Amino acid sequence: SWRLTSRPTLKMTPSASLLLLLLLGLCRALPLQEEGGKEEKAPDTVDITTRILRSNNGSNEILLEGDLLAPRTRNAMMCWTQNCFWKKNSSGLVTVPFTVSREFTSSEKQLIVNAMQGFHSKTCIRFVPRKNETDYIMGGRQVLSLSRQGCLYYGIIQHEVNHALGFQHEQTRSDRDDYVTINWDNIDPQMAYNFYKQSTNNLNTPYDYTSIMHYGRTAFSINGKDSITPIPNPNVQIGQRQGLSSWDIIRINKLYGC
């Protein structure tokens, strides 16, 4: 997915906007089932987390939870003013201006736009081409960077966009210990910080194993064994990358008052 490479959503101004940047080898920032269904999908054998971590491997930047260049304070982030969020207009829509790097081909740009438009039918979020906004996804600005090698998939793009909207990884939410076990012995001690719980605003919604924001079960594993095990049923699937889950959609709508 993409990562935030500039300011995180913590300090977005009311006129904020998004930039989609091509970086060779990086997916960063930090789904509703797919709309249309014609976009290229990630192979079923590889979950979204694995693709992100593979693409970010070797980055010389400090990444939080594998794909975030931002403070680890969000599930939705804890914020008590509207200045943290994208602004709603008089029509009740939350417009997010964006710019796509010229480095992407026309077909790659279309895939990115299709993934962003997947938010439109189920939420009040509207991604619109930037005109003269001073803040945007890459402007004054928030940067989402996508690698051609591993990140240009519908669900991965949506995962990173959802970070830009203010959402953290699911398994770091404050109540996660009731739903998953973190297997610390299977995790590189230098990577353990990626699994620390956060003080999150869970929006009165249940823990969601199906969230596009959930790590796969072997994220940051040093031995191929589970770094995350669902409880009480260890066989529950986690780490899907097809698109926003129904709870992902509900949370977006709750956070932005759709």
From TrEMBL:
The keyword Kinase does not apply. One of its GO terms (biological process) is proteolysis. Zn(2+) binds at residues 159, 163, 169. Residues 75-258 form the Peptidase M12A domain. GO terms for cellular component: zymogen granule. It is an enzyme of class 3 (hydrolase). The keyword NADP does not apply. It is found in: Zymogen granule. Residues 1-29 form the signal peptide. It holds the Pfam family Astacin. Its main location: other. Its EC number is 3.4.24.-. The active site is at 160. Its cofactor is Zn(2+). Keywords: Cytoplasmic vesicle, Disulfide bond, Glycoprotein, Hydrolase, Metal-binding, Metalloprotease, Protease, Signal, Zinc, Zymogen. One of its GO terms (molecular function) is metalloendopeptidase activity. InterPro entries: MetalloPept_cat_dom_sf, Peptidase_M12A, Peptidase_Metallo, ZnMP_hatching_enz. Binds 1 zinc ion per subunit. This is Metalloendopeptidase. It comes from Sander lucioperca (Pike-perch). The lineage of its organism: Eukaryota, Metazoa, Chordata, Craniata, Vertebrata. The gene is LOC116062345.
